[in-house]
Amino acid sequence: MKVDRVTSGESAPHLTVVLADDHLVVRAGMRLLLSQDTAFDIVAESSTLPETFLAVERHHPSVLVLDLTLAGQSSLRSIPELLATSPRTRILVLTMQEDPAFAREALRIGAVGYLLKEAAAEELLGAARQVAAGATYVQPSLGARLAVTVPGTSTTGMGAGAGADDSLTAREVEVLSLLALGHTNQEIAEQVHVSVRTVETHRARIREKLGAETKADLVTAARELGLLA
Question: Which end of the chain has less neighbouring CB within 10 Å, N or C?
C-alpha cells in the first residue's frame, strides 16, 4: 500500500523525534505512521532507558515518544530527568497502561501527551503534531476517565478503604503490579529506586485503600486494574 506523505508547505517545521520502545515491531509501526508527515524526522530509536537518555542527550529531539516500560524497567520516574537533559523536548507517552493514575502522574511530572498503544494507528500522528506544536494531548477515551475520577471512589470496587481518597497513586499502582507478579519488597525497592521502608508504606496504603487483606486480594485487584494479563 502506498503511503502519501503529508506536507505543510515550504514553511513546515523540522521536528526531530526519538522513539523509545523495547519492541522492534512497535517502533517500526510508529516509524511508518510518523513518516506520513514530512515535518517529522526520526533521528534515533532506543529499547532501554540508558539508550533513551543517550539519544535524548545527543539529539535534543522535538518529541520523545516514550513507552512506560523499557526492557523491564519503569521509565515513568525518569520523565523529569529526561526533561532536565533536554528541556525543550516534548514527551508523548505511548503505553499499554490504561489506568488513569499513570496518565495523571505522567502529565504531572512533565509529559505533555498520553496515548494508548491500542489507538496508536489512528491517533499517533495527530498526537505527535499537537504536542510538537505546544499543546497537551490525552487520548479522548482516557481523558474522559480522568475527568470523572472522583476522590473517595475505589479504583477496583473491591471494598471500602479507610481514607478520604481511595484512588491509587501512580506509584502505588506500580508497586501493586510488582507485588502481584510475586516480587519481594526488596526487589520492588531496587526496581523503583526507593527504600524498602517506602515500599512497605506503599504496600500498607494499597491494602487500606483496596480493602485487600491477603496476597490473593492484591492479585485480584491488579487483574481488575488491567495490570496482569
Answer: N
